[in-house]
């Protein structure tokens, strides 16, 4: 008799003939181009990873999930999975409309029958789902909810036509049914899954060995390669790290497979969600870590979740999830014994050695030694390829401030000083110049300003990725947009925000272009500082006021900041 974890699970794909017919019909349907997060969600809906969901949540299901972690039929489901869209797209959609869901190249992946359309209470969603301050944008998912996700939610069943195409690590990507078939073929009755979004180091290896022994199970290393936390090591590097250490595991009892999941970093709820997803992939046991899927610290510097909140919530729902929890013992290296121990089993008098993620990043950034007791040489080699010492990385200096504050002048001086030093190509992306060459069709509404700043951010991230220096000098009045640019750039290198904090009275006194005068007369609408707000940066890398200091001094302060960040050497 086939075991529960080996039997096929329902998928949402239609037959090839039905898919061909639906593709023909799709030409007359409204089309939605999916965001990267929505593509991850749709793939796991279609292949059964999100079973028992049959599509994006209806309003009733959404309300049940937000308030009680339950679908309207009573099934346990902790995470809202909705198609968030713009008001403009939602405008003409009536319940009963079919829409074509396409990837970013326009390839049709699925048809969705819209049954529900509503404006969600995002504040309540943030509070209930993430259990954090509803407006605390230090949580990446709360920031996404308020500043990235569309304002209208659509719900309804999905018919899958084809899976999204992945050109990377194709042999490592398995659907739930492919893994279940593999376990059946290999006779794996018990499978313990290790969830990770980080490279594997020696402590992880020891932990996974112990977990597999404790559960007397085979091991599936199942890293997330969809969207993780901004600032995480990119998945290409991580998968190369996993492959580099796979031969440290017994081949007969260990497998590596990649999961295209968009994480929400929702701590306890995320742990339950991960358990359900892994059950669908054929797991019988699941390792739940200390502060599992936690996003770190909130805006007050306190962890969003308690270290064992996730384990407690998982344990409470373990029977319903259908997967047994193996709780994570935080592993530390004991110097005298030259081996790893769970932190609660350290021999008396033992010297504990540990390197935090922050310390690891510092050592990579500064080109310092990473000891062999901490990680494998093969992993360190891969990490150093992606994260060379900061003095060899590309970076972006992002000036922000009111019109007339001196941003462009200081940026120009900085550019000349950096070019004088040499070593890396320097590009200045001045607000006026970018508007002329990249954004000439845009106006000055909030939407258009955001588009303009994101274009600047995209160009800066490409320059940074390729080892150059980008200097940006737009007004950039909105916090959320500046954060989006920071996240774009920090995937590839460092980001230094410089707030040119010259007071508006001084900016208006200078008024070189006569803009303030026109704004005061009402001839320029939505002018920053007069009829439109400027949201001051809370924690810029540097704040300078050009009222009191000259341009050369201001530029030199930026250089000193860059030196302190390890990006350049002045001495």
From TrEMBL:
One Gene Ontology molecular-function label: adenylylsulfate kinase activity
Keywords: ATP-binding, Kinase, Nucleotide-binding, Nucleotidyltransferase, Phosphoprotein, Transferase
Protein name: Adenylyl-sulfate kinase
Domain Sulphate adenylyltransferase catalytic as annotated: residue spans: 173-385
The reaction(s) this protein catalyses: sulfate + ATP + H(+) = adenosine 5'-phosphosulfate + diphosphate; adenosine 5'-phosphosulfate + ATP = 3'-phosphoadenylyl sulfate + ADP + H(+)
Membership in a protein family: Belongs to the APS kinase family.
Pfam families cross-referenced by the UniProt entry: APS_kinase, ATP-sulfurylase, PUA_2
Domain ATP-sulfurylase PUA-like stretches: 8-162
Chaperone listed as a keyword: no
Coiled-coil region: none
Pathway: Sulfur metabolism; hydrogen sulfide biosynthesis; sulfite from sulfate: step 2/3
E.C. designation(s): 2.7.1.25
Domain APS kinase stretches: 393-545
UniProt-annotated binding residues for ATP: 401-408
Organism whose genome encodes this protein: Paracoccus zhejiangensis
